[in-house]
Amino acid sequence: MTSYADIMFTPQVEAEQARVGSKGKYESRYQAKQNEPLGQREQDFLTSRSSIYIASVNSDGWPYVQHRGGPQGFLKILDPVTLGFADYLGNRQLITKGNLNTDDRVSIFAMDYARQARLKLQGHATLVDVSEAPEIAERLHSEGEGRVQRIMTIRIAAWDWNCPQFITPRFDTAEMTALVGPEIDRLEARNVQLETELAQLREQLKGRK
Questions:
Q1: For residues 97 and 54, is the Cβ–Cβ distance under 8 A?
Q2: What's the whole-model pTM score?
Q3: What is 55-96 written as a DSSP string?
Q4: How do residues 66-100 score in pLDDT, each as one tens digit?
């Protein structure tokens, strides 16, 4: 692995940074990240995702972004520099698979909208039929998702946490349940208490008639 800047800050990018006065602003930060594998924070973040976005480039130079998702934990850590996930039956356009046949480089965004966090990764990917790697397929399979068709593995070349600015918070069902569940439980308990007190008051009123 190398640093994110070594890959992404091409001469053309640095020329644009120089034009706006930001060239060199990130140098010390990225120099400290040379050859840094995924740490525990990054691994925990990735394995708690339920979706990611993967960009590849076709033989004509056109970029393509694919969404991949599944139950929380569908993305698995094979080692500190390798991710993997199982690919199931889809629309069978196989655009990403075709792209990887000519250029195995990919860019990945892993998003946590609820906490406004984004992890960016650059890497080299393989997408093969399950018959070519049945042992890895067994490690990557997610229960209840059907029969694995292909498996994707990504060897990470560099990674970087992105600025949370402009990430609009969004919550899935599980996150909403965790967020509002305790308050709902409190209100339900209070409702039971009030109904009990109301029933007691009614009984008291009956006794006074």
A1: no
A2: 0.77
A3: EEE-TTS-EEEEEEE-STT-SEEEETTEEEEEEE------HH
A4: 999 888 999 999 999 999 999 887 677 889 999 99
